[in-house]
Amino acid sequence: MSDRIPVIAVNRVSENAKKTLDIVRKFVEEKCIPADPIFSAQIGEGAQRWDHHPSVIDDLKVEARKLGLWNMFLAKGHYKESPGFSNLEYGLMAEWLGRSRTASEAVNCAAPDTGNMEVLAKYGNEAQKQQWLKPLMDGVIRSAFLMTEPDVASSDATNIQLSMKRDGNDWVLNGNKWWSSGAGDPRCKIYITMGKSDPTNPDPYKQQSVILVPADTPGITINRMLTVYGYDDAPHGHGHITFKNVRVPASNMVLGPGRGFEIIQGRLGPGRIHHAMRSIGAAEQALDWMLMRINDPKKTPFGKQLKEHGVILEWVAKSRIEIDAARLIVLNAAIKIDELGAKGALKEIAEAKVLVPQAALNVIDRAIQSFGGAGVSQDTPLAYSWAGIRTLRLADGPDEVHLQQMGRNENKRGAAVTATINKQKAASDQLFAQYRVAREVPGPKPRL
Ligand SMILES: Cc1cc2nc3c(=O)[nH]c(=O)nc-3n(C[C@H](O)[C@H](O)[C@H](O)COP(=O)(O)OP(=O)(O)OC[C@H]3O[C@@H](n4cnc5c(N)ncnc54)[C@H](O)[C@@H]3O)c2cc1C
User: Which domain of life is it from (predicted)?
Assistant: First the structure.
């Protein structure tokens, strides 16, 4: 793989990262992908669905640690806990992780723990880090991030309602959350929870806080687990959770009351790139499956193999173009984060967040189509992969919110470009008049 690093990245990847990239590729191809069906088979049925996790993950974790593949997402220069890779280097690794259902967790780089570890590493105090970051970094517990609520349009986080009221040395929490990813896993021990602690603050961005809520705190009820196109994503799952007089020590507040917006914004930058890179891996995997299918000598509709039907090779070519273009967009964003931090790379992160899932979905959809009925069944990884990546157009904010922000920023140039174009038009009119006087142009000035 290291010899296939895109040109944009090649001089920015260290020798150590190149070596690690080769180890990641081998680990994913030889250990994780073969383990994926075992993982699915080990998920419990009925009442046991949410009370244990597949043991094959633990075996993969032992192997990954031996290979030195652990927590690679914590970028060097940004976190003192980093194992030493840049966002760009980890991006290249995450692409391989995205080819397998088990790989990200096996190397302790799975969402939402990655974003949650970043929050704790960046904003947590020493006691919070000891209690929660350490076991998360060791991969012995898991976590969930609770922002979205069923009763409000949560893509606008000023709407978040969960009430946080101070009572002595505690905060008391009441409200509802849903799409709490990871809450189904019995190893999920901590909910990083956003709520409203100061609802009358005139600044709508200072009303929210983020607090650490141990998952076993009295008053918490997981009402149900949500499905994604019918998949329940067990053992991880997406919870619909109620908080009723949930009492949490004030020392569990992250950063301080009113700092919630700052924290959620800091959490989402690199995480979006991780999702995007994994999506590219999933798209590459789908293209591989499509190539296998169209070269299958037993499948000859209308007397020819699929690869001999013109439209199919066009699908292959379009898929290659879309994957390669998407990869460049993500790597560009990763480079920008490395150089300027997430705040300096907001445009590039948004470009990747919007473009990559759509490109990956196009590729996976073509692969599904090439398989006929098998494509939507459990006999290929394609249907599950499509369902998972489709959610990335919603999770971490729907496309429209990012597009609106990007459009607004791009449109800031509106007045300046209008002035430039009008100036050019005036200069052109003047020039035209000169040539007309000299009779070197006949007739009226043509429209551009
Ligand atoms: C699989 C999955 C996992 C998730 N995991 C988590 C998690 O772990 N933690 C968590 O807190 N949340 C999670 N979410 C929730 C996700 O972040 C929200 O669903 C998303 O932010 C949208 O919020 P909403 O569902 O309240 O939709 P709403 O805010 O009600 O928006 C509905 C739709 O309105 C449209 N819209 C919104 N704003 C605009 C605009 N400005 N212009 C035009 N149209 C607009 C969009 O099309 C949007 O999809 C997850 C969601 C999914 C599907």
Answer: Eukaryota
At which residue do the structure tokens 């709520």 appear? Answer: 195
CATH class of the domain defined by 144-258: mainly beta
Judge if the beta carbon of residue 387 lies within 6 A of ligand 1.
no
Nearest to 347 by CA among 398, 402, 393, 394: 402
Q: Which of 378, 270, 278 is CA-nearest to residue 333?
A: 270
Cβ-contact 173, 208 below 8 angstroms: no
Residue type, 48: Q
Topology of domain 2-141, CATH:
Butyryl-Coa Dehydrogenase, subunit A; domain 1 (1.10.540)
Cα separation, 401 vs 387, in Å, equals 21
149 CA closest ligand 1 atom index: 26
Q: Could you report the per-residue pLDDT of 274-321, keeping only the tens digit for each? A: 899 999 999 999 999 999 999 999 999 999 999 999 899 999 999 999
Ligand 1 pocket mutation, candidates 118, 148, 385, criterion most atoms within 8 A of CB: 148
Rg, C-alpha atoms of the chain: 25
Stretch 387-395: mean pLDDT: 97
